[in-house]
Design a protein that fits this description.
Blueprint lengths: L1 E10 L4 E10 L2 E6 L8 E4 L3 E5 L1 E6 L5 H7 L2 E6 L7 H10 L5 E4 L12 H7 L21 H11 L3 E6 L14 H13 L3 E6 L2 H10 L3 E2 L11 H12 L3 E3 L2 H10 L11 H14 L4 E2 L13 H12 L4 H7 L2 H6 L16 E5 L12 E6 L2 E2 L3
Parallel strand pairs: 1-4, 1-5, 6-7, 7-8, 9-10, 10-11, 11-12, 12-13
Antiparallel strand pairs: 1-2, 2-3, 5-14, 14-15, 15-16
This protein binds zinc ion.
Length: 381
């Protein structure tokens, strides 16, 4: 099966080619260039349109239906940051065996203290999306000595990376048990010894400092407790940069909990959205790799459309449209070791998105989707 996408503007994950032909062969991108008028089975008109790598959402939570919803809006890979063990195997199977859903990588069960974040949110979901699932029956970590066994259990579960939660609940208006710093460090060390990347949920500057002390590879959110002009934000951003840590943006999540008061989150401190934007700007100023992520759930932000919102918010926060698109394609692929995707180049997976107009100049064009390919399979629209 060969497909020619003709005369499209191409954003290749890093830069824009004004007009190119792209040939897909089965599940791969076969060629990118000019005048590739070879024998093909299908020709797709690209004039006036932009072809992009499928979007990668670097922070989601996958439930039944999530992966199909994501793909409909051009998110071809979801990086799940906590999926319950009762749900993960069937989501993984779905993503591996079907081309009408987004692909999936997952942290599996996250590391938190007994009763720690986000168990209070899971308790609120009992009987809805968690009908019949006992979310309290997950592994918890209470001291550093348990770290190697916890990581071994995640490997057995098929986790692609480790997620650690450092959150005492203060931003959520709660007081929750939290992992001790030495436990976070032991978890990061055990994960690295097992070859796993480590991503921390930390939502205040002091929690982010604990994560950095532990030696994590990435932060799953920007911090949200410092005023936008607080010089402490800039100092922390410089530390993040010095340690080579990436940060997942999740502005759509902070918008949801600040403005909409969504079902999964209780009363974040007022202003957290503006503070999140301030932290993001500080991180961008010093050149920290920013990965677009939404914290999508079955509530808000939603899978797929949440990513469109995230891209919009990133440009409002000062990223150029090109930077925002890079944050949603080649950068997450690079930082999560997904060398087969996130760019448009010969030999890579044909995970692609075709939109009307030019999202490299006007990010809102990302919503005008004409076609999505997952592993070379064109989605019916
Ligand atoms: Zn999350």
């Amino acid at each position: 099966m060969r497909t020619l996408i003709r005369d499209a503007r191409v954003f290749d994950g890093e830069r824009t080619i004004a007009a190119a032909d792209v040939v897909l062969e089965d599940d791969r991108i076969a060629a990118v260039g000019a005048g590739l008028r070879t024998d093909v089975d299908v020709v797709v008109e690209g004039a006036g349109r932009t072809l992009l790598p499928g979007l990668i959402d670097a922070h989601t939570h996958v439930f039944d239906g999530s992966l199909a919803e994501a793909l409909r809006y051009g998110v071809t890979t979801e990086l799940d940051m906590f999926c319950l063990p009762q749900m993960l195997p069937r989501q993984r199977r779905l993503a591996a065996e079907n081309d009408d859903v987004a692909d999936l990588r997952s942290a599996g069960t996250l590391a938190t203290a007994p009763g720690g974040h986000p168990t209070q949110l899971l308790a609120a979901l009992a009987g809805t999306v968690l009908d019949g699932i006992d979310a309290a029956a997950i592994d918890f970590v209470t001291d550093p000595a348990q770290a190697p066994a916890f990581v071994a259990a995640r490997l057995a579960e098929g986790a692609d990376y480790l997620k650690i939660v450092i959150d005492d609940g203060a931003v959520h208006g709660a007081d929750l048990p939290v992992l001790a710093p030495e436990t976070a460090t032991a978890l990061a060390t055990a994960a690295h010894e097992a070859g796993l990347r480590v991503i921390a949920h930390a939502i205040t500057a002091s929690e982010a400092e604990i994560a950095l002390d532990a030696g994590v590879d990435g932060l799953a959110h920007v911090w949200t407790d410092l005023a936008p002009d607080d010089p402490a934000s800039q100092r922390l951003a410089e530390r993040v940069r010095a340690q080579g840590v990436f940060v997942v943006t999740t502005l759509a999540y902070f918008e949801a909990i600040t403005v909409q008061g969504v079902q999964t989150a209780d009363c974040a401190r007022p202003g957290s959205s503006a503070n999140a934007v301030g932290a993001l700007r500080a991180l961008r100023r010093v050149g920290v790799p920013l990965l677009a992520g939404t914290d999508a759930t079955p509530f808000a932000p939603a899978h797929g459309t949440g990513m469109h919102r995230e891209l919009h918010l990133l440009t409002e926060a000062g990223l150029s449209p090109r930077e925002a698109l890079t944050a949603a394609t080649s950068l997450p692929a690079h930082h999560f070791g997904l060398s087969d995707r996130g760019r448009i180049a010969p030999g890579l997976r044909a995970d692609l998105l075709l939109v009307e107009g030019d999202p490299t100049r006007d990010i809102t064009a990302i919503t005008s989707i004409t076609d999505v390919w997952r592993r070379g399979v064109r989605q019916s629209r």
